[in-house]
Design brief:
It contains four helices and five strands. With about 150 residues, the chain is of the alpha+beta class. This is Altered inheritance rate of mitochondria protein 29.
């Protein structure tokens, strides 16, 4: 059997992270209600413009979704104030199922910046996963990462 016959995939096929343009991307937002109880619900944003939207735009879009979608009613009691990249497309995932403890400095998204850094400048691309959470809850959980179920 030749080497070409053993390969059953196309080496020229693009990765999903680069297949869609930055103005038409799909990203997953992981809404974290509770770290110890692993209460997480996802928002899938399709056709999202990573080239022109800021961290503040993303935060506001997520908050609007949480406030208007009935499935997120239990998640409305948390004061969300932080966004952080959980994983990039085709990158390795963390062993923690709730949040990525690494990259606390370089993967944080500035949600107060209304007209500055665009999402693509954070290296966010198609199929990136982002966590939305309360910073004080995260600090307490990181100091003592005990799961309660």
């Amino acid at each position: 059997m030749s080497n070409n016959q053993s390969i059953n995939y196309d080496l020229n096929e693009p990765l999903t992270s680069s297949a869609a343009p930055l103005t038409d991307s799909t990203i997953t937002i992981r809404i974290i209600k509770s770290f110890p109880y692993r209460n997480v619900r996802n928002i899938i944003l399709r056709d999202y413009d990573l080239k022109n939207k800021t961290g503040n735009d993303l935060f506001n879009d997520c908050m609007k979704h949480i406030q208007t979608d009935g499935a997120f009613r239990p998640f409305r009691t948390v004061k969300y104030n932080k966004m952080k990249i959980y994983t990039h497309a085709h990158g390795s995932k963390t062993v923690n199922l709730v949040i990525n403890f690494n990259h606390d400095d370089d993967w944080i998204i500035d949600i107060s910046d209304t007209n500055g850094k665009k999402l693509c400048e954070y290296d966010i691309e198609n199929e990136t996963e982002i966590s939305l959470y309360n910073e004080e809850d995260y600090i307490a959980y990181k100091a003592n990462p005990v799961e309660k179920w």
